[in-house]
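Service request form, structural biology core

Requester: graduate student, group of Dr. S.
Request type: structure prediction, single chain
Budget code: on file
Notes: please return the result as structure tokens.

Sequence provided:
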Amino acid sequence: MPATPNMESALPYLYVLAAVIGMAALLFFRHNRNPRLKRAVWIALIVLADLVFFGLVLALRAPGYFIALAVLVSIVGAWRSIRLTRFCPACGGNHFPIDNGMVPTECRHCGASLAPPARR
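Core staff response, request fulfilled:
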């Protein structure tokens, strides 16, 4: 889908939006200790970040094959991130899968067991 001239003028705003979202997320996840709230905000953050990314891709007038690749990578990345990220119920620590995609089973901060998030 070709980008309109209005999308090109939105490019600086999308960069600022991405930076603001990133800084707010950094502060929130660093200082909040509520694992249920973190889980809910994490899912919303992943979806919002993907939407901003798609806005940037469209504003940069990427070709169709790149847009398709961006959609595929974003869907796989969001699914993996939401499914594998754990938040400690005892101390509220963040645990992201960094070792070959292995899901952490215990908190590296306090040693509590990390159960998978409850399905809704």
